[in-house]
Amino acid sequence: MPDMIEGENVKGLMEAAREATQVLLGASSITVVAHIDADGVSAASIASSALSRADVPHECRFIKKLDDAEVKQINALHSEGVWLVDLGSSAISKITLPICCVSDHHSVIEDAGGNLKRKLGQNDLGSFMERKVHVNPHIFGIDGGQSLSGAGVTYLVAKSMASSNASLAPLAIVGAIGDFQDSANSKLVGLNQSIVQDAVAEGTIEVTKDVRIFGRESRPLARMLEYANDPTLPGLTNRYTECKRFLDEIGIAQQSENGWRSWVDLDHEEKREITSRLAGRLLDYGKGVKSIRRLIGEVYLLSEEERRTPLHDAKEFATLLNSCGRYDRAEIGLKICQGDRGDALKTADDLLRNHRDTLKNGITWVKKKGVIRRRSLQYFHAEQEIPETVVGIVAGMLLGSADSNEDRNQAERIDVDFKVDCSVPIIAFATSVDDKNIKVSARATRELVLKGLDLSIAIRVASEKVGGSGGGHRIAAGASIPLGREMEFLDAIEALIISQLGTN
Ligand code: C5P
Ligand code: C5P
Ligand code: ZN
User: Using 50, 70 and 90 to split pLDDT, how confident is the model at 504?
Assistant: First the structure.
């Protein structure tokens, strides 16, 4: 790993990872607590494997959010310590167990995160007595939204425990892809790229340049095109019949004696033909060279997994984990990460089908109900129609397939009555089934982030104002707020968005 990359204190981050290692290896028992998404499940698996290999007794728990009630439960645990992975940066100071390590990549509140780390750094003895270590790239000037995921930070700690833990690198890549960290550059960058190099050296990951559309391994060709949304394919995205016709017209056989063909079943010439037609189509519809750059990029294949299965491609692997974790079955995802290819995989296949249906129904529902546009944001309230754990994915997919005002082509709109505009962020509400709160998910585009938008700050401040709590990343954030305070929350977050974007 390089020590320093343009203002990034990689050395400091690695030092923090070493401190965490010392603390964790000295523990008599640890509870690993992780977030329920693909990154969280991958991070938990890395942490659990590293602790097992070091003979540290432990168990794993998965949680939707780390609020005060959850902190209380953690503080009452019987284990000597807790290792919070892919979450925890906002709560580290509230943990009272003798040992607490956090390997997280969410935006940190400067005072809580930065000062805490600086305090520990001043006095190593003090830090070991307190045995609290905070490992988060943001503290060291490294962008945790793009350069390192929760699984990636956890991997750095694991690798500092034992260099043989480099075998866990594929899971760190699945976590990063699950958090869309490849999307701005069409490949993983920064410390994520160093992890890719570890995996390539181990022979566990193969990197190829290919189309970055979800479903290359396990979706029938026309279905893969139908669901493409980064970039959207004019005339094809969301149009299954058109996708089939497009493939027929260029003479691509969609079935073979083995059933529906996937992208990976095509020969080089067939792939080249489709890719150049797609690129031509993007240009014809005025989508620009930028969209072609997003169409093609690095894809990450898990060399030890079977071809044509969702486990062979990091993007599909991540979706499989989301299909488990976001439906209260994170333990199934964990088993898959740890090599179970029997019952757990069968259950995950069913969960994946359920996830697909839930997303499809969710998108259809929002399209029917509509998205309400305000001056600087748009929102929808899914009540209990979309599970709170996936309402953010639905919002992200809608925004991803939205057109900007500049390149909107009315003739090509998926549904003329349904307007999602990518020039403002999207906020989604859903009613929590368990605690009678409202779950909020917010998603933005890279362009808005470049203009100064930071949803993690906006959602935290706005949710606290109405008695809730939240956080996340600049581009994707979430919160929980009391029932009935939605409009007040929208007023507060809209004012913050306007001030961040300077659109007063
Ligand atoms: O808690 P964690 O950091 O793992 O979650 C990040 C979440 O943000 C991912 O689950 C993903 O759904 C979402 N995200 C997104 N669009 C991005 C980046 C992240 O929807 N560009
Ligand atoms: O739940 P959702 O996918 O919308 O989460 C987006 C991001 O916001 C994730 O990184 C998640 O960890 C974070 N989040 C949070 N506090 C919440 C809900 C979500 O920090 N209450
Ligand atoms: Zn994450």
Answer: low
Q: Is the CB of 86 under 6 A from ligand 1?
A: yes
**Contact at 8 Å (CB) between 419 and 255?**
no
Pairing of strands 469-472, 476-482: antiparallel
Least distant ligand from the CA of 428 = 2
Same-domain status, 470 and 383: yes
Q: Is any atom of ligand 1 closer than 6 Å to the C-beta of 132?
A: no
Task: State pLDDT tens for residues 419-448.
Answer: 688 899 999 999 998 768 999 999 999 999
Residue with CA nearest ligand 1 atom 5: 179
Is the bond into 170 cis (omega within 30 degrees of 0)? no
476-482 β-sheet, strand order: 372-373, 378-381, 426-431, 437-443, 476-482, 469-472
| 380, 455: one domain | yes
Q: Is the CB of 24 under 6 A from ligand 1?
A: no
Ligand 2 atom closest to the Cα of residue 477 is 8
**Residue labelled with tokens 């007794």:** 57
Q: Identify whether residues 44 and 165 lie together within a single domain.
A: yes
- Residue numbers of the domain that contains 479: 370-501
The ligand 2 atom at the shortest distance from the C-alpha of residue 35 is 12
Q: Is the CB of 326 under 6 A from ligand 1?
A: no
pTM for this structure? 0.92
Claim to verify: residue 344 and residue 480 sit in the same structural domain:
no
